């Protein structure tokens, strides 16, 4: 049996499963019962049930892989904040920690963004108008 170097999301063929089960099972396809008293009596139905269970296990593992949610693409960006607003972030982080919630700056900003999307347009406009406009870009180093 040869293996392919390319990764495929298709189901594996059933033949290798049957071969692996057949190798581990002393009962052959043609015999009805095992002659070994230690193994007990196994019929071809038990063999077929074992093969079916192996095939189902393979199908389930493929189905689980397909049902995983796709990860969202993360985008890095930089923002300019007035010092007062930056201090508000640290105060919010401390308040969350006091309540037992560990939160990152980016998570706080995202939570605020989600809350802003729930506002009516007039409320959003008022909130934006209250914010001080800041100069964008990096400050000069005094050259």
Q: What separation lies between the terminal Cα atoms? A: 71 Å
Question: What is the gyration radius calculated from CA atoms?
Answer: 32 Å
Tally of discrete structural domains? 2
Number-wise, the strands total 0
What is the residue-mean pLDDT, rounded to a whole number? 75
Task: Provide the structure class.
Answer: mainly alpha
Low-pLDDT residue intervals, each spanning 5 or more residues: 28-32
Number of helices: 5
Percent in strands? under 5%
What is the string of helix and strand elements?
A: HHHHH
Q: Helicity level, as a percent range?
A: 40-55%
Major sheet: size, sense and barrel closure?
none
The global form is elongated
Give the structure's gist in a few sentences.
This protein is mainly α and 143 residues long. The termini are far apart.
Describe this structure in words.
- The chain has helices at residues 14-24, 44-66, 83-98, 105-117, 121-130.
- With 143 residues, it is mostly helical.
- α1 (14-24) crosses α2 (44-66).
- It starts with 13 loop residues before the first helix and ends in a 13-residue tail after the last helix.
- It has 2 domains: 14-66, no CATH class; 83-130, no CATH class.
- The chain is built from 5 helices and no strands.
- Mean pLDDT is 75; it is low at 28-32.
- 51% of the residues lie in helices and 0% in strands.
């Amino acid at each position: 049996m040869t293996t392919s170097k390319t990764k495929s999301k298709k189901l594996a063929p059933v033949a290798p499963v049957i071969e692996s089960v057949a190798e581990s099972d002393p009962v052959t396809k043609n015999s009805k019962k095992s002659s070994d008293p230690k193994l007990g009596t196994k019929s071809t139905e038990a063999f077929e049930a074992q093969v079916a269970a192996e095939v189902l296990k393979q199908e389930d593992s493929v189905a689980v892989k397909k049902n995983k949610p796709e990860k969202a693409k993360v985008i890095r960006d930089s923002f300019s904040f007035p010092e007062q607003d930056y201090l508000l972030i640290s105060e919010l982080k401390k308040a969350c920690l006091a309540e037992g919630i560990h939160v990152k700056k980016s998570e706080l900003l995202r939570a605020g963004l989600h809350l802003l999307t729930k506002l009516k347009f007039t409320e959003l406009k008022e909130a934006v108008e209250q914010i001080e406009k800041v100069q964008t870009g990096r400050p000069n180093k005094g050259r």
